[in-house]
Specification:
alpha/beta; Arc Repressor Mutant, subunit A; D-Maltodextrin-Binding Protein, domain 2; 2 domains; 11 strands; about 20% strand; transcription regulation; transcription cis-regulatory region binding; LysR family transcriptional regulator; DNA-binding transcription factor activity; transcription
Length: about 300
Amino acid sequence: MNINQEQLSIFKTVMETGSFSAAARKIGKVPSAVSMSIANMEIDLNLTLFIRQGREPVPTAQAIALYERTQNLLIEINEWRQYALSLSSGLESSLNIVVVSELLHTNWTDYIALLEKQFPELQINIYSAPQEDAQKMLTNQSAQFALMFEREQLESSEQFVELKREALVPVASVHHPLAAYDQVSFEQIHQSRQIAVASRDKSIKPELLFSKHHWRTDNHHSACSMIMQNLGWGVLPLEMFNENPELQQHLKVLNFLDFTPKFEYFVDLVWNRESELGSAARFLINHLRNLRKDAI
């Protein structure tokens, strides 16, 4: 069997136009070429596709059954060709993006929608991880981008563009002893168990760690649940309260007395400058840089 795309396209056109001559006019061929193509298909398939007794060919049950499959197959062939052309123009086969756990409530999906619109054939994989693990994924190049909080010192291989500011707030259950105070001292914080969002690698010290005793989790959803269960205090994204106002009935924002920790951060899109970035990655970087230019 040696059916090619042109034969499939001719067969589809005949089915849709109802005759060899109409199909020939539509695709710019002579009727004899269309008739010959269908005849060769029938020989290759060992099937009768059209009854030729009247003025116009009548599709058989086998032709009708193959028609829908043919439509889908031609669509897939076209998608395959477009994908191959994209790869030849520098489009990466896939793009891995890791979003720091506390930033899952931000509008990061806007960037994914932009990429999908511009590169519909691109395979995009999204991961969520604590900040330290997201940085590891950039270093070992298992992710091309990380949406993460600003850091005081970047690795020499990293490059970034600022996206927005994001706030975190220290909270405790309304039933927690700390919630009884209008202001909480550093000593009270230090002595109270903290629920920390941290790397799964226990050798890495969690960021924003203030307490002598702490429990670890790798995402802010489980941290919120543990804090609401009065298992400790912790630091959560302010956006969680905006999206779920009911949390305000269960959690109290703590006011620190002795010090003012930095709980407002820039959110950066970070990438490894040593990675070979494809056209989709470069498009996103340039788009974000242009947005910053327009905002200045």
